[in-house]
Amino acid sequence: MARLSRTWPGDDANGAIKLVRPASGRWESLTLLLAALAIIASVTGYVLLRPQHSGPPTPLSWQVRSFDGLGAVDQAIHSALLPAGEEIIWNNNDTGGWITLERAQEIWLPPFYRDAFWKTNGEVHWQLILPGGHLPHVGSVDEHEDAAAPRTSEVSQATQGQGATVYYGSAGGAPGQSAYLLVIGHAHAGVMWANQATIWVHPDPNAPYPGIVKPESLVGKGWRQVIPYDGTREVERIKGNQP
Predict the structure, then answer these.
(1) What's the number of domains the chain is made of?
(2) How many CA atoms lie within 13 A of 215 on its CB side?
(3) Where is 184: in which H helix or E strand?
């Protein structure tokens, strides 16, 4: 901007006011305008070109979402199987063995423990199927008897040569209940540590044990994998996508 400068008496005989023009005066306003336009363009470009926040991914035809794809009873069983799977894996890492259904009663491990939760959610008949064995294992079948549940020998011999341990739940009596598989895969031969567990459901509560628990085989027999979500994704599902 132009600046007014006044000379003091003695500096100028007439005491005149002089106008001092800055050398860059003609460019200041233009520079300020260009800077403002650049900021506006940058903000507009960011808003228009930024990636949109997506909600929970759309499940495939052989998958089901845990929060909005399962009924109340199935949600309850699934919510119990998630921590149970973690407990089973950590126990295997520490001991090299598997939590039998008999042991699950001793440590009160749902959904296998036969308490009020078990009764309310269909009194599911659970079986533990260990890899590579034909004969029933001690504690591999709970004491709940149901005529609709497969025989132990039929279930046990179906896992010959497979590297997965399975907790198979069937014959639940609650309305709209499914059959369940908690499939715990293993690392390569010779390694004790187990991989993560996956949970599968079948709309028929009396669906027979699938025999082969590889995903492609399960899908072909009508089983669907349950996709769990964390709290952040559930907030997105309820409140919508947040900027």
Answers:
(1) 2
(2) 10
(3) strand 179-186
